[in-house]
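Reminder to self: tokens first, then the designed residues, so the page reads top to bottom the way the pipeline ran.
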């Protein structure tokens, strides 16, 4: 699931919504942390989303929002974003 969230984040960022991409990356990071999984190989995707935002405060807010989501919330957001 974390990998899928990261992949969707890359697509969403490329599609012009870096805030949603950061939220998805953060949700994936939280899931990996909870499972004790290694860090994402998608660090470049997070960096690209941060660069696209051009605003550290917006990045931090979006990251905190995504980290706060439950798995169910992250999945619901991912499904809504992919429509």
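Designed residues (83 positions):
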């Amino acid at each position: 699931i974390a990998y899928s969230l990261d992949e969707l984040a890359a697509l969403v960022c490329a599609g012009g919504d870096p805030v949603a991409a950061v939220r998805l990356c953060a949700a994936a990071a939280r899931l990996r942390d909870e499972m004790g999984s290694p860090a994402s190989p998608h660090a470049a995707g997070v960096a690209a989303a941060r660069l696209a935002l051009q605003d550290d405060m917006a990045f931090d807010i979006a990251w905190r929002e995504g980290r706060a989501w439950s798995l169910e919330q992250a999945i619901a957001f991912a499904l809504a974003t992919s429509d």
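Residues 31 and 61 are 18 Å apart (CA to CA).
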